[in-house]
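Shapes recur. One chain:

:::
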Amino acid sequence: MQALEGLRILDLTQFEAGTSCTELLGFLGAEVIKVEPPRHGEPGRTSFGVKAGKDSFYFLVLNANKRSVTVNLRSPEGVALFKRLVPQCDILVENFAFGVMERLGLDYETLRALHPGLIYATIKGFGTYGPYAEYKCFDTVAQAAGGALSVTGFPDSPPCSPGPTLGDTGTGVHAAVGILAAVVQRQQTGRGQKIEVAMQDAVVNFMRVRMLSQYVTGKAVGRMGNTVAQMVPIDLYPCAPGGPNDYVYIFLTTRAMWEALVRCIGRADLVGDPRYTDVPQRNQHRTAIFEMVAGWTRERDKWTVMHTLAAAGVPCSAVFDTNDVMRDAHLRQRGMIVDVEHPQAGTFTMPGCPLQLSDSPVEVRPAPLLGDATDDVLERLLSIDAATRADLRARGII
């Protein structure tokens, strides 16, 4: 069996911060019922240049292992139908804009009265209280508000977006942890609870270590490019043939790693040299060390550099571009990159589940077509017959 088999989730998420949370729980075996508006579904289905009549790849990579049910929450009858589903489920997850659930009459207090054991997770840009609570938010907005942009980039350049969606998927992972904690607590108390995760809060959590120098200096942490303060030779080194991603990142912390590096690059004569033995000494020769190492890396491609140094015990990696990631044999062997067969999109490649549990194998299933499980869920959970479903569909309720 899978770890979360038997848990049923009502998924009212859209875009990424919420969908990444419920997808992860779906990977681990929860039954995820994604509730969407009829006709067009959640906005992510049509984001980022989707072709007419097809779901976007943005939607497909964030909604694997889910089933779709269409319910019109803009209608009183649709809201009533949704409320009938709530007692049949363990968890509800939503990331609508501030105040939407309250306006729909689907706030926590209302739904808890229907289902005291309900675990209700709400994801917001800035939370549901505080001076910023009503501000709208997307990933890089949260990264700006959480401090991540301020420390990303080079000292003489403007702040830069880090690239990975720490504000969105990072928040989704935080929410999944909170939900699982509430599940464990409910096993002891029988009571559900509300979980709140703000995107700004999640980014601040990711910044925990990056902010350390502020405790020492009392000053805001600056941008350092690819280096680490007082640590040499931690940096990004150019490789042949000199393309935009032909680089290797090297990260040394110990004397043994330094000695392994200099042996690899043909400078064994530096082993034991007091000018380079420890970090404080090497820091005094930062530029000279960079040029020495870069002179060796520039003559080799990034894969040769990576495998040569890593085999010698030097922590490093080639800079993988997105094509490299999708084609990487190591990631494929581990099931982190998988091929999925979608009824509409055909075969496409996507990231799989980043968690591996020895007794809970993960099967990555394609994202659902809009409303593909409506009939099954309404019949199985609410005993709504075919004639009634046909009437609800004709009137735009489902």
